[in-house]
Design a protein that fits this description.
The complex is a heterodimer of chains A (108) and B (119).
Chain A lengths: L8 E4 L5 E6 L9 E5 L6 E4 L13 E6 L2 E6 L8 E9 L4 E4 L3 E5 L1
Parallel strand pairs in A: 1-9
Antiparallel strand pairs in A: 2-6, 3-4, 3-7, 5-6, 7-8, 7-9
Chain B lengths: L2 E4 L3 E3 L5 E8 L8 E6 L5 E8 L4 E4 L8 E5 L4 E6 L8 E8 L6 E4 L3 E5 L2
The chains are: A mainly beta (108), B mainly beta (119).
Amino acid sequence: SYVLTQPPSVSVAPGQTARITCGGNNIGSKSVHWYQQKPGQAPVLVVYDDSDRPSGIPERFSGSNSGNTATLTISRVEAGDEADYYCQVWDSSSDHYVFGTGTKVTVL
Amino acid sequence: EVQLVQSGAEVKKPGESLKISCKGSGYSFTSYWIGWVRQMPGKGLEWMGIIYPGDSDTRYSPSFQGQVTISADKSISTAYLQWSSLKASDTAMYYCVRRHSGDDAFDIWGQGTMVTVSS
């Protein structure tokens, strides 16, 4: 089955840039989506199709995808960005949906 | 407003059955896939399965095939997740999700249903 690997944690100072990676075999050939989950809340879609943002999501959130790594970038990090982040793809070979292992972003 | 509203928290004993629900509103319920996602306490997100309410076409993750049943009643815009015999390891938060039109992201999430299985 297809596996998506994320770093368990990322720490960043306010105003700096956080980069969260999502590794998978030839992930660049798939569409990658990213979710933010704050404590006690349901996840929220923040980036879809590698780099598109749903309405209401700040431009500070951006994404890229190439080769074996997709990346979610959060620019000008704010305290309110502290959350768990998950990547997700649809694996066409199995017709299954796969989530990454999740990354906890801590704002210092 | 497009939303998915789930049924309330449940406390059950091992071996009991359970059916939780997810009601869609604000959009054409039969035109979007509805999935279920498990989150065990302190853990990550796991895709369980997905159903197309228009024709009840259903897919399951291998990890959940045979363990749960996903269904939908399009007449009341509601999807269901059910267990015939709960285990303590089924204790988790369960989210229903709507698959985004045109791609495979989950754009709308329910508020979650906490299921606790304990003797």
